[in-house]
Amino acid sequence: MKTISALLVVNDSDLCRRLCGVLEKNTRLQFESCSSAKKALEILHRRHFQILYADLHLDDISGVELTEQVKGHFPAMDILVGSAAGTAQDVIDAMRAGASEFIIDPFEPELIENAFGKSVRKCLASCDRGPVRRHASKAIITRDKAFLNLLGMARKVAPSTATIMVTGESGTGKEMLAAFIHANSSRRNEPYMAINCAALPEHLAESELFGHEKGAFTGAISRKIGKFESAGNGTLVLDEVTEMALPLQAKLLRAIQEREIMRIGGNRSIEIEARVVAISNQNMKKAVSSGSFREDLFYRLNVIPLTIPPLRERKNDIPLLADYFLKRFCSQNQKAMEGISDRAMSRLVAQPWPGNVRELENTIERGVLIGSGKELMPEDLILDETVLPASSPPSLAAGMTVREMEKELIFNTLDAVKENRTHAAKMLGISIRTLRNKLNEYRGEMDPPGA
Q1: Among 385, 343, 382, which Cα is nearest to 362's?
Q2: Are 354 and 363 in contact (CB under 8 A)?
Q3: CB-side exposure of 85: number of CA atoms within 13 Å?
Q4: Which end of the chain is more exposed for a tag (fewer CB within 10 A), N or C?
Q5: What is the enclosing helix (H) or strand (E) of 81?
Q6: Phi first, then psi: what are they for 33, rounded to 5°?
Q7: pLDDT of residue 408
Q8: Helix (H, G, I), strand (E, B) or coil at 287
Q9: pLDDT, tens only, 210-233
Q10: Which InterPro entries match (predicted)?
Q11: Each residue of 175-200: b (16+ CB within 10 Å) or e?
């Protein structure tokens, strides 16, 4: 008999006992509990759960905030929020954050049974239809407000049929966002197909996208179904769409406008239902201005534009991601590192990361393989010093605060003197005590909420 696993996040011991007493009667449900959002996130990253129940009033963050974070990491999870003291606005906020149900009185057994029963049935039905493709449900790890807002926008537009344009620098996680959109849509159990337009030879690209009939050209020994047809009612991701040749762009435009294609060598139109998500690491408007990308296609693809911020603009994500990668690579390589040293973390946060999350991931993997102590140390990091030369002045940009400039100057100076605080303090014209206090402040900013 299939069972569904649930995690209960409740800080009221009486309520926790009441919930457990009621849920024990459901033979399809296995559950465990914890009392804080921080602990819940730790558990969810270690083990798989299908249902989460969050009390609206937790000690560290609210149940609504926890719902937003969990949906960002695990979009397929069914989330229930409850409170006997909730307002109408609380219900609205919880549903907007991604909760499927708000239990208005979690002390009432019948309400608990009905809500969890409905959730269990939904999860069992999803299991019967088959699992969501693995790459369509990878966790997006962030606590950056701008990125969380972007995920909220993506979740809102996911159920629509609108074409979506995802842009951002290389390594920011654009395809993961495309997969997140698919996982949050009604197409989540349909095919998810991604094709890299830059990797397609020009003479084969049209066949890959639209298919061909037998005998359509030399070597076409049988009919081929293209990606648009193969995607069915699912999602078709066009990665590096700006690398597509202009003649093919015209055919793509017609396919999206008319919702139909014609195989090479074919004589009849075929209706298509797949939702298109286009991805690019280029400035789309510049590509249009230069003539390398059709303006009409740009506007057809850019119905819902989503731009992922680079890692250097979301510094608070660096410790979160670094810790995540450390645990993952330690587990993969049977290493027993317990964490990242303060000095190593300071260097990671000070890096500009032109390769974004992918570069950070590679750096941590190298560090885990090279390091041998209990902590990842600065000497274990092989950082591209050409990216951040010791003599480089702090970058000044319009909109930077004095505090941000000060922080960058201190980290650059420490890097230039190989973390020697005495020398750094002298160069900065401040006392060692002041320098130490500043570093403690910055590390406090890097700590996760509720840590």
Answers
A1: 382
A2: no
A3: 5
A4: N
A5: strand 78-82
A6: -135, 160
A7: 83
A8: helix
A9: 999 988 888 888 888 889 988 888
A10: AAA+_ATPase, AAA_lid_NorR, CheY-like_superfamily, Homeodomain-like_sf, HTH_Fis, P-loop_NTPase, Sig_transdc_resp-reg_receiver, Sigma_54_int
A11: bbbbbbbbbbbebbbbbbbbbebeeb
Output 321-328 pairs: Cβ under 8 A, ≥24 positions apart. Answer: 321/141, 321/357, 321/360, 321/361, 322/348, 322/360, 322/364, 324/45, 324/141, 325/360, 325/361, 325/364, 325/365, 326/364, 326/367, 326/368, 326/376
Q: Tokens 């587990």 map to which residue?
A: 331
| Ordered domains of the chain (ranges, CATH) | 4-130 (3.40.50.2300), 145-307 (3.40.50.300), 313-446 (1.10.8.60)
Burial letters for 18-27: b for 16+ Cβ neighbours within 10 Å, e otherwise?
bbeebbeebe
Strand runs labelled E in 94-158: 101-103
Buried b (16+ CB within 10 A) or exposed e, 230-259: ebeebbbbbbbbbbbeeebbebbbebbeee
Measured CA distances, 320 to 65, 285, 323, 325 (Å) = 17, 33, 5, 9
Instruction: Identify the H or E element spanning 209.
Output: helix 202-210
pLDDT score for 132: 39
What pLDDT score does 385 carry?
A: 52
Cα angle: 139, vertex 143, 144; to 5 degrees? 115
Rounded Cα distance, 251 and 344, in Å? 51
Quote the pLDDT of residue 389.
41
Give the integer Cα–Cα distance in Å for 328 and 331. Answer: 5
